[in-house]
Amino acid sequence: MSGETRNMSFTNIKVFSTTLARDREMMGENISRWIKENPNVEILDRVVTQSSDKEFHCLTITLFYRFK
Q1: Among residues 21, 30, 36, 39, which is most buried (max CB within 10 A)?
Q2: What is the pTM for the complete model shown?
Q3: pLDDT tens digits along 30-58
């Protein structure tokens, strides 16, 4: 997390994660939809994590937020 976020108190996290290629392609749209459906949240930071092994590639986007 950035230093700025550590000084701002987040109260919740939302995790988007998938190993399926077609779901990874839609992840941005899913996140945008969630943000639009939750106008009462202020996103303070995000962390993008990618991991993989011989067969699977996992993408995780974690949003740190608080209610406005």
Answers
A1: 30
A2: 0.83
A3: 999 999 999 999 999 999 999 998 888 99
